[in-house]
């Protein structure tokens, strides 16, 4: 296996492997949320977060493909166990927003580092991640807005759960 690339510095390889790790960890976080939601009877929300989990693996594949295209084998990361328990559906949604903000910061850092290096291949990938994060933040903010508009009474959470299930379709 080649360990060096003509077009990817060691710093870029490290950042791309970190992106793989973080996207795969995001998938695990959303899988844990989905499982908790399903266990608590929020089947629509569980379906939506399961879909989010799958989408995060697609994001990880983007960084893997960039590494492989440059003759670098991506690292298969060891992942820590994500949080397993939540207080409520609103707690899950608020946790998801905080997580997406953290990931957005990471994607900005990848793009900025690539730009400083003049690595336009990785800049383009970083911009793709940033655009994707704008969508992710928007999706979760929509759910936060629904909570703020209609409250957290059980009947409203039931309706939000049903709406989230429709978003998953």
From TrEMBL:
Family note: Belongs to the ferritin family. Prokaryotic subfamily.
Organism of origin: Winogradskyella eximia
InterPro entries: Ferritin-like (IPR012347), Ferritin-like_diiron (IPR009040), Ferritin-like_SF (IPR009078), Ferritin_DPS_dom (IPR008331), Ferritin_prok (IPR041719)
Annotated GO MF terms: ferric iron binding
Gene3D superfamilies recorded: 1.20.1260.10
One family name in Pfam for this protein: Ferritin
PROSITE patterns documented for this protein: FERRITIN_LIKE
Protein name: Ferritin
Record-annotated Ferritin-like diiron domain positions: 6-151
């Amino acid at each position: 296996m080649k360990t060096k690339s003509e077009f990817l510095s060691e710093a870029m390889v490290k950042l791309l492997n970190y992106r793989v790790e973080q996207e795969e960890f995001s998938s695990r976080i959303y899988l844990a949320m989905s499982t908790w939601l399903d266990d608590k009877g929020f089947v629509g929300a569980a379906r939506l977060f399961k879909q989010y989990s799958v989408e995060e693996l697609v994001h990880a594949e983007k960084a893997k493909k960039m590494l492989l295209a440059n003759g670098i084998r991506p690292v298969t990361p060891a992942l820590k166990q994500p949080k397993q328990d939540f207080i409520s559906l609103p707690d899950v949604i608020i946790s998801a927003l905080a997580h997406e903000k953290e990931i957005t910061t990471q994607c900005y850092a990848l793009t900025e580092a690539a730009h400083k290096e003049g690595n336009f291949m990785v800049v383009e990938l970083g911009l793709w991640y940033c655009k994707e994060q704008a969508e992710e933040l928007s999706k979760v903010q929509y759910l936060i807005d629904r909570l703020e508009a209609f409250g957290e009474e059980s009947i409203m959470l039931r309706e939000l759960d049903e709406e989230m299930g429709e978003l998953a379709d």
